[in-house]
Amino acid sequence: xxxxxxxxxxxxxxxxxxxxxxxxxxxxxxxxxxxxxxxxxxxxxxxxxxxxxxxxxxxxxxxxxxxxxxxxxxxxxxxxxxxxxxxxxxxxxxxxxxxxxxxxxxxxxxxxxxxxxxxxxxxxxxxxxxxxxxxxxxxxxxxxxxxxxxxxxxxxxxxxxxxxxxxxxxxxxxxxxxxxxxxxxxxxxxxxxxxxxxxxxxxxxxxxxxxxxxxxxxxxxxxxxxxxxxxxxxxxxxxxxxxxxxxxxxxxxxxxxxxxxxxxxxxxxxxxxxxxxxxxxxxxxxxxxxxxxxxxxxxxxxxxxxxxxxxxxxxxxxxxxxxxxxxxxxxxxxxxxxxxxxxxxxxxxxxxx
Length: 353
Fold this sequence. Notes:
The chain is of the alpha+beta class and 353 residues long. The protein has three domains: 5-82, no CATH class; 123-218, no CATH class; 240-291 and 304-343, TATA-Binding Protein, CATH 3.30.310. Helix content is 37%, strand content 18%. The protein has eleven helices and ten strands. The protein has helices at residues 5-14, 19-31, 36-47, 54-70, 72-78, 96-111, 123-132, 138-149, 227-238, 253-263, 329-337; strands at 172-178, 186-191, 203-210, 213-218, 244-250, 266-270, 273-278, 281-287, 312-318, 340-343. A six-stranded antiparallel beta sheet has the order 6-7-8-9-5-10, sandwiched between helices. A hairpin with a 2-residue loop joins strand 6 and strand 7. The radius of gyration is 23 Å and the shape is globular. This is TIGR02996 domain-containing protein. InterPro entries: CHP02996_rpt-companion-dom.
């Protein structure tokens, strides 16, 4: 017989996915004029909504206020705001605004950064447009707004608003600047000719140093073809789980894809890149280039990179609260085969699953 708060909280801890039990607790709280009953109902409603839906973002401010009133200890026992719950359960929408909402909610859950709804209004935007002498389309404006709302995520928006300028030798607005062993300096950018589009395509460039000075050349490879698509993929690729993560390159791409599809009911695809989710766990599978590829004159002495078959990278991240008992077997195997690690997923700690 459930007669006290402790009775309900203990029962919910034993059966955290029992929706009926939570709603019975909400009724019990309502009878005692306890506002936490409303919070349970709001949480239940939002859990079943797409994270990009208008209703989700309409309810979010009220939910946040109720969480603050309920207090962190009670919310933690109810598992409200403590898990990195999946965001891809309803797929990936086509609209730029809805996609950016997905990015914002993913960022809030994995980085614990409170994120407001898509707004696209910050003083830095006017400054950037004045500096460029061009009006930016909605999705690019949202890229800048996001960098303001999530300032501690520099790897998501590598170019700050103050640095927004031009790609050397190219008529393009840079969104992201990165470096790796094969492409010493690369840009993700939007060409000026595409700025008339609401959600313009993103193109890759790598910096080439010549006798005449810096210049850029197109970069081959897989790049999601809109600003919002690039933001989704870069947000997932950028995340570093509090428990740990790993990275694997394999020629058996289709085999791993199918095994992950069988193991994860929550999944989505964006232009050949697949995402798989469970509570506190996200896996990304992305194709690598199949064509011979030479990054440019900075590495001209190296032979071209050649891949055969469907070669993919598989990266996985686990949040601090991941339940190791529920990690799918295919993820355990990927962890054992991984070539790069961070945190508890790699040596010297070994595979914790």
